[in-house]
Design a protein that fits this description.
With about 260 residues, the chain is of the alpha/beta class. Helices cover about 50% and strands about 10% of the residues.
Length: about 260
């Protein structure tokens, strides 16, 4: 039923109340569902529930969109558009994470594998899942996270920054291991991991196995302590195969990426 077929006094009242509730979509839902409710013989309760359900759904969708925009993703990726034919071994386990249960359990997700196998795609897709489940999300590369923490530390704001980040349900750290960290940077990254341990979730991607992280962080003890906290409550996935970026180019794989040892 259009708004003109609904009594004008009712329209005015609903418009006023919707504005007072900061729910402008209620008027649209109320007028759109009115005729359907009459024809189907809905009770007043059924009609009210249907109107409110549409308002809540629209509000959730709007909130999710704001959270996705604020997360800092490089591009939008979903689980549905991932090439599962290239990674069939992990499809079921990764798909199970779409329920969002890992977030309420403060579990981590670690994606390991060569460049171009879809780690960042899956990390982004799970971040979007988290945003749609009502969680605040932040995405950045490992080097960008260290820069952010270093700036906070330099200004004497590191504890406050870590406390602020703990309010995010999910933090995504992309490209761990692409560049080695200096000792101070490694210690800052360790504090980020420790501050979220058993409190909120992390997703990390890396082109290196855990055994090579000591070289990345410059200290085997720091790397071991960090890995211990990350994997204690975590789902770890190893992606395999050649880079999707090289498909059709006559190149089977990229050179292995390893932390360089200093020359003697």
């Amino acid at each position: 039923m259009s708004a003109t077929k609904m009594p004008s006094d009712a329209v005015k009242q609903i418009t006023y109340l919707a504005a007072a509730l900061k729910a402008p979509r209620i008027l649209e839902a109320a007028t759109r569902l009115a005729e359907q409710a009459r024809d189907a013989g809905w009770t007043h309760e059924d009609y009210l529930a249907a109107v409110l359900e549409r308002e809540v759904s629209a509000r959730n969708a709007s909130g999710a969109e704001l959270r996705i925009r604020a997360a800092g993703f490089g591009s939008r990726k979903t689980l549905e558009d991932f090439d599962w034919d290239a990674q069939p071994a992990i499809r079921q386990q990764v798909g199970a994470l779409a329920s969002g249960g890992f977030l309420t359990e403060a579990r981590n997700v670690v994606l390991l594998g060569p460049p171009g196998t879809g780690k960042t795609h899956l990390a982004t897709a799970l971040g979007i899942v988290a945003a749609r489940h009502g969680q605040r999300v932040l995405f950045a590369t490992a080097t960008d996270w260290v820069t952010r923490l270093s700036d906070a530390h330099r200004h004497g704001q590191l504890p406050a920054e870590l406390a602020k980040l703990r309010r995010y349900g999910l933090i995504i750290v992309d490209e761990v291991g692409y560049l080695p960290f200096e000792q101070d940077a490694a210690n800052l990254f360790f504090q980020l991991v420790s501050s979220r341990y058993e409190h909120a979730s992390l997703i990390l991607t890396s082109n290196l196995p855990f055994s090579a992280w000591g070289g990345v962080f410059g200290d085997q003890a720091v790397a071991a302590a960090m890995i211990d906290r990350i994997v204690h409550h975590a789902d770890v996935f190893t992606l395999k195969g050649a880079s999707y970026r090289l498909r059709g180019r006559g190149i089977d794989s990229l050179p292995s990426v390893r932390t360089q040892e200093p020359a003697n």
